[in-house]
Amino acid sequence: MSRLSSRHLLGLEGVPREDIQLILDTAETFREVLERTIKKVPTLRGITVLNLFYEPSTRTRISFELAEKRLSADTISFSTSTSSVKKGESLRDTVQNIEAMKIDMVVVRHSSSGAPYFLTKCVDANIINAGDGSHEHPTQALLDMYTIRKKYGTLEGLRVVLVGDVKHSRVIRSNIWGLKTMGASVALCGPATLLPYEVEKFGCDVYNNIDEALDGADVVNVMRIQLERQQAGLFPSQREYTNLFGINKERLKRLNKNYTIMHPGPMNRGLEITSEVADGEHSVILDQVTNGQAVRMAVLYLLRGRDMEEGEVA
Amino acid sequence: MTSKKYDLVIINGRVIDPELGFGKDGHIFIKDGKIVKIETDSASIRNELKNLDEHQKIDATDKLVVPGLIDIHVHLREPGREDEETVESGCKAAAAGGFTTVCCMPNTTPRIDNQETVKFVQDRAKDADARVFVVGAVTKGTAGEELSEIGDLVKMGAVAITDDGQYVQNAEVMRRALEYARMFDIPVMQHAEDQQLCAGAIMNESFESTRLGMKGAPAVAEEIAVLRDIALCRLTGGRVHFQHISTRLAVEAIRQAKQEGLNITAEATPHHLVLTDKEIGKEFNTNLRVNPPLRTEEDRLAVIEGLVDGTIDCITSDHAPHSEEEKDCEFDLAPPGMIGLETTLGLIKTFIIDKGYLSWADAIRKMTYNPARILNIPGGTLESGAIADITIIDPNKKWTVNAKKFRSRSRNSPFVGWKLSGQVYRTILGGRIVFER
C-alpha cells in the first residue's frame, strides 16, 4: 500500500499529485462499499474519531460521521452550542481535554484560518480540516475532483469554472490547488468585490463576465452566495447577482457538449443557480454528496493507516 | 588613594556620539549622574585612571559606548494589564535592551487622558531602571471624539499626544488636535491606518491574505491616512509624527512632504524592517499578528530605503506585551502586537547594520539623538554636562533570543530562537549601572 506524505489533511495547497491520486483511487474502493447491502467495513475498528464543529454544518458533519461509522470507528461529535466553548474555554484546552479521553483523530471545522494547523501543535491525533475560515476545505475539493474524474475518467486537461464568492470561499481555494495539481485548467468568476486581492496569482483565468467564463468549459462548480455578503455591501442586490452571475439554462449553451453542473451545497435555488439547472440531467450535485462519504472514508483510512499496521481496505 | 573626583569611568571604549560626531576610542568620566568629560587616551589621562579603584571603572575595550538608547513608542500596560507588563518590568526590559528612555503610550486601562493617570505612571517610574516619558491621549478615552485636556497633560509632563492603536479617524478632530497641540509645541503621534479600510483585518492584504483566506488590511489604508494628515499639517502648521510606517507609498508620501518642508517625522519598527507577511502562513504564529501588519518584501525594502535616506527619522520597538494565554489561540483571535525592547538592538545590528544599510553611527542616531529631538526630551548626547545615560554595546557578540531570559513580563516575540549579532553589555542610567551582562 502506498502512503500519504502527511499524517494530517490540512489543505490541498502543496499536497503532491501522488497523494491526491491515492485518495481518489482509494475512494473508488469505498464507493463500492456504499453500494453493498451491509455498508460497513471493520477498517477503523477501535479507532475513535472526534468531529469538532465550531461552525454550523449539516452535510459535512453528517458525511464525516457516516464515513466514520461505515469504517467501524467510534465517533463523537460536538459543536459550540453543546460544548463548554461558550464558557470561554480555549481551543487548546478543549481539544486537549478531549484527547485525554483517548481520541485518535480529530475532524475540525472552525471559523479561523489556520485553526487545524494550530490543533496539530496541541495534540497528537491526526487532524482533518473540515473547513477553516476562508482558507481551505480539502475533503470538499477532493470529493468534487472524485466526482469529475468519475465522469470523465481523468482531470487532466479539463476546463473547470468556479463561480461565486471567490474571496470568502474555502471550497474554491481547495479546488484551485487540487485541480491545478491534477492538471485541470481552472477559471474563476465572480463580482469584482468578491474576488480577493491579487487573485490572478493563483494562476487561474479570472473573469467578471460569466458568459466569457463558461465559454468552452467542461465543468461548472457553482458556489453558494452567503446572504450576509450582500448585507455587508459587497454586491448591490440578490437580483443583480442573479442577473450577472446566476447559472441558468440559457448560459449553459456556451459549455462543451458533455458538460457537468456541480454545487457544494446548500443551494440558494433561484439565486446562484436555477432549479432547472440544479435538477437537470447534467447535474451531479447529489452524486457529490454520495461520493463525499467515499472520499472521506478514504481520507480517514489513509491518514490512520499511516500510523497503523498495513491492512486490507475492505 | 581613592579618587572622589569621579564616580565611574568607562575606559577604552569606542565612543559614538551622533551630536559630537565622536567616533574614537576614549574614556568617559562620570560624576553625580552626569558626564564630566570625554578624553582620548594620553599619558596624563592614564595617570588619572591609575588613581581610580577597579570598581569605579568599566573596561569597554572593543565595545561601543553610545548615548543611552531612546524608544519613543512603548506600551507599558500599567495601569490595567499588570499581568502583561508593569512600568517596573517594562523598564527592566528597556535596560536589558540598552534603552535608558522610553515613551509610553496612553492606551492603558484606564487611558492616560488626564493628569492623574500621567502622575500615576510617573510615580511608578520613579525608581525604575529607565526614564519614562508619558504620551497622553489625543481624545478622551482615545475614542476619537473629544479632545482630552491636552494643556493639563502637558503641564503634568506629557511629551506628546497619540491615540495609538487607533487612527484619529475623524479629520475634523485631527485638525483641531494639530492646531491645539501647536500651542504646546508637541507633535501628534499618529497610528496611520484608515479604520474603515482596515475593519476586521488580521494581516496585510496581499496574495498571502488571499491564499490564507484572511481579511487583509490594504497598504492604501496607511497611505490614505498619511496623505490626509500631511494635508492637515500643511493647513494647520501642526506637527505630526507618523508611527510605525510600513508601506512603500506611505514612505514616498512622507518623503515628499518633508521635501516640501512640512513639520513631519516618522518612525519604523524592527519587525517591519525585518519580517514580511510571508512568515504568517508558515505556522500561523500569533506573535506575527501586529498592527500595522507585516507587509510585502517590496514594502520592507522601501521602509529600509526611507530609513537610509532620512525619510524615517527613528527606530522604535512598538513594544506591545501580551499574555501567553491571549496569544495561545487561533491567529485571528490573538490580540495584535509583539514585544521588542530586548530584541531591537540585535535586530538592527544583524539586519540593518550588517547588511550595509546603515553605519553604527547612523543607526545610533536614529535610536538616540533623533527621537530625543522629535519629542524635545533630554538625552541623545554624551557631551560634558549631559545626564550620564549611556549604553555599552558588544557589537559583534553572537546570541540567541531566549524567551526565558526576557525581563519583560511577556514573551510574545516572533524572534525567539533567532540568532542575532550585537548585544548590550552595560546600561547606565544617570551614572547608575541598571543592567550588566
Strand and helix map with partners:
The complex is a heterodimer of chains A (about 325) and B (about 425).
Chain A: H1 17-33, E1 48-53, H2 59-70, E2 74-79, H3 91-99, E3 105-110, H4 115-120, E4 126-132, H5 138-152, E5 159-163, H6 170-181, E6 185-189, E7 205-207, H7 210-214, E8 219-222, H8 227-231, H9 238-245, E9 260-262, H10 275-278, H11 285-306
Parallel strand pairs in A: 1-2, 1-3, 3-4, 5-6, 5-8, 6-7, 8-9
Helix pairs in contact in A: 1-5, 1-11, 2-11, 5-6, 5-11
Chain B: E1 8-15, E2 25-31, E3 34-39, H1 43-50, E4 57-59, E5 64-67, E6 69-74, H2 87-96, E7 99-104, H3 115-124, E8 131-137, H4 150-156, E9 160-162, H5 171-182, E10 188-190, E11 203-204, H6 207-212, E12 216-217, H7 219-236, E13 240-242, H8 248-259, E14 264-268, H9 270-274, H10 280-283, H11 297-309, E15 314-315, H12 324-327, H13 344-353, H14 360-367, H15 369-375, E16 390-400, E17 419-429, E18 432-436
Parallel strand pairs in B: 1-4, 1-5, 6-7, 7-8, 8-9, 9-10, 10-13, 11-12, 13-14, 14-15
Antiparallel strand pairs in B: 1-2, 2-3, 5-16, 16-17, 17-18
Describe the protein's architecture and organization.
- The complex is a heterodimer of chains A (314) and B (437).
- The two termini of chain A are 13 Å apart.
- Chain A contains 11 helices and 9 strands.
- With 314 residues, chain A is an alpha/beta fold.
- In chain A, strand 5 (159-163), helix 6 (170-181) and strand 6 (185-189) form a beta-alpha-beta unit.
- In chain A, the strands form 2 sheets. Chain A has a 5-stranded parallel beta sheet with strand order 7-6-5-8-9. Chain A has a 4-stranded parallel beta sheet with strand order 2-1-3-4.
- The mean pLDDT of chain A is 94.
- Chain B is α/β, with parallel strands linked by helices.
- Chain B is globular.
- Helices cover 31% and strands 22% of the residues of chain B.
- Chain B is built from 15 helices and 18 strands.
- In chain B, the strands form 3 sheets. In chain B, strands 1, 2, 3, 4, 5, 16, 17 and 18 form an 8-stranded mixed beta sheet that branches. In chain B, strands 6-7-8-9-10-13-14-15 form an 8-stranded parallel beta sheet, sandwiched between helices.
